[in-house]
Amino acid sequence: MINIKFTQQNVLYHVFNIDMLSLSVNNNLSDLILDLKNPQIIYDSYENIIHEQKLSTSSLTHSIQSDYNDISTTVKQKPFNHVVATESLLYNSQETRQKKRGNIKNDIYRSISSIENVSNPSATLIEPTNVHHDKVIDEKIIGLSNPTDAQNNSSSTIIINHPITVSELSQLIALHESEIIKFLFLKGINVTINQIISVDIATSIAVNYGFSVTNNDYATHEVMSNLKSVVIGATEPRVPILTIVGDINHGKTFLAEIIQNNQVPNKQTSSITQKIKAYETHLHLDNITQKAIILDTPGHGAFIAMRSLGLKIANLVILAIDANIGLSFQGIQIIKDIINKQVPIVIALTKIDTVTTDIDILKQNIINHDVIPQDLKNDIPIVPVSSVTGKNINVLLSNIITLVKKQELKATLNHKASGVIYNAYLDKNTGPILNVIIQNGTLHIGDIIVSGSIYGKVRAIKSHRHNKLQFASVSSIVDILGLPKVPVNGYIFTVVDNVKEAKKIVKQSQTYQGTLFSQQQTSSEISASALSSLQENNRVKKVRIIVKADTQGSINALFSSLSNIPRSKVELSITSAEIGIITETDIRLAAITKSLVIGFNTEITSNAEVIAKNGKIDIRNYKIISDLIYDMECYTNQFLKTVHTKDCIGMATVCSVFRLSTGVVAGCIVNSGKISKDSLLEISRDKSIIYKGLLKSMKHMKDNIFEAKQDDECGISVVGFDDWHVNDKIKVYVGQ
Question: In what residue span(s) does the Tr-type G domain sit (predicted)?
Answer without folding.
Answer: 237-408
